[in-house]
Amino acid sequence: MSTLRDRRNAARRRHRLRLAWLFLCALCTEWRRRARSRAALAQLSPHLLRDIGISPAERLSECRKRFWER
Questions:
Q1: Where in the chain are the domains?
Q2: Is residue 41 classed as helix, strand or coil in its secondary structure?
Q3: What share of the chain is helix, strand, coil (3-state, %, to 5)?
Q4: Rounded to an integer, what distance in angstroms lies between the CA atom of residue 1 and that of residue 20?
Q5: Which single residue of 15, 17, 25, 44 could bond 48 by disulfide (Cβ 3.0 to 4.6 Å)?
Q6: Could you report the per-residue pLDDT of 44-63, keeping only the tens digit for each?
Q7: In this structure, are residues 52 and 58 in contact, taking their beta carbons and an 8 Å threshold?
Q8: pLDDT digit string, tens, across residues 33-46
């Protein structure tokens, strides 16, 4: 027979697992966004880079970063 304490502990574990899962999903979403943004930046023409105020060196620096790097 489970006690109230056992049920509360089980609920806390489930809550922590949900939070960990949500964090992992958010992290993966952020990594995908960075990868897509850097891929799009790599495709911009010099004219468009000037329009948004990014130099070719800045673009190269940003595009060389791994998806997990800020």
A1: 4-63
A2: helix
A3: 80, 0, 20
A4: 29
A5: 44
A6: 999 999 999 999 999 999 99
A7: no
A8: 999 999 999 999 99
Q: Locate 66 and state its tokens.
A: 């791994």
The one-letter amino acid code at 39 reads A
Residue 30 has pLDDT above 70, yes or no: yes
- What is the total residue count of the chain? 70
1 pLDDT band (50/70/90 cuts)? low
Q: Would you list the DSSP string of 36-69?
A: HHHHHHHH--HHHHHHHT--HHHHHHHHTS-TT-
pLDDT digits (tens, 9 = 90+) for 2-29: 799 999 999 999 999 999 999 999 999 9
- For residue 38, what are the contacts with CB-CB under 8 A and spacing of at least 6? 62, 63, 65, 67
